[in-house]
Amino acid sequence: MQYRRTGLASRVAASALVVACALAGQPGTAAKDPGPPRGARTAADRSAAGGAWPGFRGAHRDGVSPETGLLDVWPEGGPRVAWRIAAGVGFSGVAVDGGRAFTLWQKEGEQRLVALDAADGAVLWERTLGAAFANEYGDGPRATPVIDEGRVFAIDAHGRLAAVEAADGREIWSHDLAAELGARIPPIGYASTPLVEGDSLLVEVGAEDGAFVAFDKATGEVIWSSQSDEPAYVSPVAVTLRDRRQVVFFSGSGLYALAPGDGRLLWHEPWPAPCPATGIPLNAASPVLVPPDRLFVSVAWGDRKGGAVLRIVERQEELAVETLWQAPVINSEINTAVLVGGHLYGFKGNILLSVDAETGEIGWSARGYGRGSLIAADGKLIVLGEDGRLALLEANPGEHRELATARLLSGRSWTAPALAGGRLFVRNGEEIVSVEMSARLEPAD
Is the pLDDT of residue 340 over 90? Predict the structure, then answer.
């Protein structure tokens, strides 16, 4: 197979199993309907109207939904539960489109990609990706499926990547990243969700001769590979900065911005976040776009732990990085922050913070959610606490105002919610729950 390669020459040592610092199928029955034809409006298009959540952190990977009309006050006991099902273990998020919800879970010694009926939670099909993954910080798959033009892309914790038909789970193509491309499996398992950009599927592989790889999303053929670095746990984002489209990865040694067409390096910002006990990279949070030309970056470990806003500038026709501010604020051990109205909301350990994106100043702080996760919609923050408590907050930069709260799950709940069609989808390692968040879904009296 011929492809372009733009790697660095340096070798990066493979890391030992993490001990002290990290937090951290078979085709089934046919789907109830064939779904939208390939080439129809994409999941990102439908997400703009509130009807889809096509992958990790939504259509634009910013954790912000376009949905409006959410309930400001919940009934006693919380929002109405549409369905609740037993789930296999894992931390994979839920992707929603075309009346289906997709996630990864681990059951009976296998990591599986699963399609559910979004209306009632019925299992439509399951496809095995690979053998079970075990880890002291939690077993099972980590990454979230990605939906695009009738296909679903998924990667398990061992690095088996597959593209399948959304309608019935039939495999289109697959790769074993370790066996075929020399990928180094992160000690806590692959957690970086692939990114669809144009006709390519971009993946943080973590190989010595190709840290980042672009696959043809239709055929699985390798288009290019780029750089040399060991992997971390961050999902890449695609942004336009200084009129240049770029995909930003945050791997073991820092940030890399690549041209999506050919993998050319546009800029690199060193930013290691090693566990102090083992030296293993523990970067976990995706960069957050702060328009028009900035990125918010957050890490929990290393010399630059905390949060920072970087500005991408142009110097002699080359892109470079300036640090506007850096402060011990949001440090994103597990989940990524969201930006609403010029303010960042995210976690520093078990403290939820509001932070001014221009200055880094803290507007408010609140406890009670553990190391939770959050998304935003309709001027509100939807927060899932580490213990499974769901809360609705006003996205108010100057005041912590909780509008409603309810317990939906128990035990460790580290997976961020998904919101589509007025429904919220949340999970832990035991259950997946869908609740109705929109006033239009409330039953008539």
Answer: yes
